[in-house]
Design goal:
Layout: H1 8-24, H2 29-64
Helix pairs in contact: 1-2
Length: about 80
């Protein structure tokens, strides 16, 4: 799948660069397709990392019995 060796921040930063390159429209078709594939892999990797973290936080809250609501920025 994605490059799980990258941290979430590294993968997200690379994904942002891929998007900028694709949005420029200055790339040959073949390179655009390869960048698109890389972007999808990075996006999936980020999504999986977020799901794992969400699961860990949920488990922690259930284990500790914490009932305080918290808000995730960006949502």
């Amino acid at each position: 799948m994605g490059d799980s060796k990258l941290s979430f921040d590294e993968a997200l930063n690379e994904l942002e660069q891929v998007v900028k390159q694709l949005e420029s429209g200055d790339l040959p078709l073949e390179q655009s397709i390869e960048l698109y594939k890389r972007g999808m892999m990075l996006s999936n990797d980020c999504h999986q990392k977020l799901q794992k973290i969400e699961s860990e936080v949920t488990q922690l809250v259930e284990t500790t019995g914490a009932t305080t609501d918290f808000e995730v920025s960006g949502e």
